[in-house]
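May I ask you to comment on the folded chain given beneath this request?
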Amino acid sequence: MPLRGKPGRRPPDMTPTRQIYKQPQAEQDLLDIWHYSAQHWGAAKADDYLDELLAVLQKIAEQPAAYPLQMQYSPPVRFAVCNRHLLITTTDATRVTLIRVLHQRMDVNPDTWDERH
């Protein structure tokens, strides 16, 4: 017997992925991470690490609920860890906004998050 859902509803695995938007400061964070990595471990490793960071961002776009909302911030944000970096994002029904990418030693301070969504 086939499963029947409500008309117009898609199964969870068929939900379109949210668009990914990177705020200017987040773009700069990614560039800085790439340059630092390239200087210390070479361009190939820097490329690989950037790919890892972007893969985590894609996972957030696909399944934001896997990354709990941090309600103590305004607006609420989602954190995702990738190796030694923390991706800070906001999400809505249609997009994920990357606010910052901070090293684990950096202070998670909303006052430094430019152009908050």
In short: DSSP finds two helices and five strands in the chain. The longest strand covers residues 95-103. Strands lie at 19-22, 69-70, 77-82, 85-91, 95-103. The CA atoms of residues 45 and 86 lie 19 Å apart.
